[in-house]
Write a structure and sequence with these properties.
The complex is a heterodimer of chains A (163) and B (408). Chain A is an all-alpha fold and 163 residues long. Chain A has seven helices and no strands. Chain A starts with 13 loop residues before the first helix and ends in a 13-residue tail after the last helix. In chain B, the strands form two sheets. Chain B has a two-stranded antiparallel ribbon with strand order 1-2. Chain B has a two-stranded antiparallel sheet with strand order 3-4. Helix content of chain B is 38%, strand content 2%. The chains are: A mainly alpha (163), B mainly alpha (408).
């Protein structure tokens, strides 16, 4: 029996993930614009085919391709804004763009996308963006582990659903 | 006698040169055109996406500013990590809790007893005989409430509807009746967080000037008790009425949102980055990472409700006052005079258009896929009846399909 993990047969939806994104009012406008720009590139008539070709290119697993594509998209939007885009919205925007892209691929039948693919792709996306700033994800994870271990008590794991 | 035959001299222009000749901005204009960084050609944007990380990319942004983004998306990352079993995402999502400085607040308010907010945040009950505040060494974990509806897989926040929401001293609003809000308005967006009176005793949260000007006299959250300078600090809020967990740290969600509070540490992100041994980027502006006030949540939810907002505010002046105080220039925002609100509407419009594009593309793709499959079926199964509306071309056309035409 796995502990600390909650497996669900129901696919993650954009609405569920968006509820976990909290943007303060001072960044909300920039965040909405970034997400709108990213979705326009992914889904508009003029650019959707090219965007899809970028996603489908390569022999890597789908999660790798999806995560890198969304990270690249966010980076491109940052560059196109002449570095005026608040960096604070990059990761949240990447999260929403990724779940929207995954949802589209699943519902259109183009690719088989399950929760595992979404999780791995999200991991790749966040790692890529943080690496762009010279920050290592391993460092963050080790830091969190140290903080938890330093308490002397192991935190209770959430009970698995239906266990 | 030789003849001079002129040869055509061809000059191949690069795409950049071609674009430069077609633009209406002078080259070198720092406020527009190519020098400004505009890349309006969509293909260039798409090609850049694919090559951005293949070439290693440039340093995008600073550490502290990106870490703030991690905090904003912390709950979402934790959710995805928990559902998919990705421990990296779960741990990254917890970074918000580490930066929240909840330990300093809870210790000063003496909240670490069994069945109180200590357990709400995922801290265990204080062991008998342990030094006061021993739980502070723990890190609150982002947990999912096991009692949550498994079909939704969304972390839920307990809504305490029994606690009054004091606006000013002596005045309280308890479960106000919402009039004229229409079907779109969701009262559940008004979350009564136990952290609304979050200022540690003697350390009021950042003060916002009241609407209409004047010296600040109240905490940022207008729903908290007003704290005049020199007045007694607000008493610690009572524990939420949600069922107390049966075991330490289990049963009640302790999400990064609940621990994102303003504490004595005015720069939690900066200190966290330094603890990790990273340098704080020069562009990082020291921000008080604060929880969204109840009024801001209300505004966000009400704006999502659509056009009923203004008529709702007109019919509920008490709520309108609260909304006005919740966000600076709130009433101007409601009336549409504020530029920020106009920008917000524009960005929502763009987002709606992008959503429509997504749906349109999805429908087209599914239709093409279905048509292709039906056409293939018609080719290999001669006796199969196909709805002619579902097949975009005649099954009898083509060399092979023509030989396999149904005889019935």
């Amino acid at each position: 029996m796995e502990t600390g993990l909650i497996k669900s047969k129901q696919d993650l939806t954009p609405e569920q993930v968006k509820k976990g994104i909290e943007i303060p009012s001072e960044f909300k406008d920039a965040y909405e614009r970034v997400v709108a720009a990213g979705m326009t590139i992914m889904f508009s008539k003029e650019t959707s085919k090219q965007a899809l070709s970028v996603l489908k290119g390569g022999r890597e697993p789908l999660a790798q391709r999806l995560g890198k594509a969304v990270a690249g998209l966010v980076a491109t939007l940052y560059k196109q804004s002449n570095n005026t885009l608040p960096p604070q919205v990059m990761i949240p925007a990447g999260v929403e763009l990724l779940i929207q892209a995954a949802d589209f691929l699943r519902r259109s039948g183009m690719e088989k996308v399950d929760n595992q693919v979404i999780g791995d792709a999200m991991d790749v996306m966040v790692t890529s963006i943080l690496q762009g700033a010279g920050l290592s994800v391993e460092k963050i994870v080790n830091f969190v582990d140290q903080k938890q271990a330093g308490g002397g008590q192991s935190p209770a794991q959430p009970q698995p659903m239906g266990a | 006698m030789s003849m001079y035959i002129p040869r055509h001299h061809k000059t191949y222009l690069s795409r950049a040169m071609t674009r430069a000749m077609a633009i209406d901005h002078p080259i070198g204009d720092p406020h527009g055109g190519p020098a400004y960084g505009e890349r309006n050609e969509p293909v260039s944007a798409i090609l850049a996406i694919g090559s951005m990380f293949a070439t290693g990319g440039a340093v995008l942004a600073g550490t502290a500013t990106l870490m703030q983004g991690l905090m904003f998306a912390g709950a979402a990352l934790s959710l995805v990590g928990n559902v998919t079993g990705n421990k990296t995402l779960s741990k990254i999502g917890m970074i918000a809790g580490l930066a929240g400085g909840v330990g300093a607040l809870a210790e000063s308010a003496g909240l670490f007893a069994s069945g109180t907010m200590g357990e709400t945040f995922g801290y265990g009950a204080q062991p008998a005989g342990a030094a006061p505040g021993a739980q502070l060494a723990q890190t609150p974990t982002a947990q999912v409430n096991p009692a949550a509806d498994p079909s939704s897989m969304v972390q839920t926040f307990p809504l305490d509807t029994s606690t009054s929401l004091p606006v000013n001293a002596g005045e309280s609003i308890v479960n106000p009746a919402f009039d004229g809000a229409g079907g779109n308005f969701a009262p559940d967006t008004l979350v009564n967080s136990p952290l609304s009176n979050s200022a540690a005793p003697g350390t009021p949260a950042a003060l916002a000037p009241p609407v209409g000007g004047g010296a600040p006299t109240a905490p940022l959250d207008p729903l908290a008790n007003s704290v005049a300078p020199g007045a007694a600090a607000p008493t610690a809020p009572t524990a939420p009425t949600a069922a107390a967990p049966t075991a330490p740290g289990v049963g009640t969600s302790a999400t990064p949102e609940m621990v994102k509070i303003a504490s004595n540490n005015t720069d939690p992100i900066g200190s966290l980055v330094q603890q990790m041994g990273e340098n704080v980027d020069p562009s990082y502006a020291q921000n008080n990472i604060r929880q969204l006030s109840t009024g801001e949540r209300f505004m966000n939810g009400a704006m999502d409700a659509g056009k009923g907002l203004i008529s709702f505010a007109n019919k509920n002046p008490a709520m309108a006052n609260m909304m006005a105080g919740a966000v600076s220039g709130g009433m101007d925002m409601l009336s549409g005079k504020n530029k920020a609100y106009i920008n917000y509407l524009e960005s929502r419009g763009e987002l709606d258009k992008a959503q429509a594009d997504k749906l349109r593309y999805e429908i087209d793709s599914a239709e093409r896929l279905r048509t292709q499959r039906n056409a293939n079926y018609a080719n290999v199964r001669p006796g199969l009846r196909i709805d002619p509306n579902a097949v975009k071309f005649s099954p009898n056309s083509g060399l092979i399909a023509g030989q396999m035409a149904p005889t019935g």
